[in-house]
Amino acid sequence: MIEFIDCSSLSISYDATGKVTISFSVVKDDTSTLSKTYTSESWGGVSFDCVLMSVGQRAMVGTGGWCEWSLSMEGVGN
What we know:
- The chain is mainly beta.
- Strands 1-2-5-4-3 form a five-stranded antiparallel beta sheet, with no helix packed on it.
- It is built from no helices and five strands.
- It has one domain (3-77).
């Protein structure tokens, strides 16, 4: 099983209260459930604790079964 974050899709933004919104895509070699939750990650030296807000999956046409998961979450950075 192969599963990785598409780094070019990573978006991290903060609002005036310090709440962070993070979105990114995970590419996987099959359509089964993701192996990680991705809600506690570290990027750029900041650890984030988030809640998953939305998840979407779509097949990557012409790839022989690969799919892309779109994740969006909200939380705080430590």
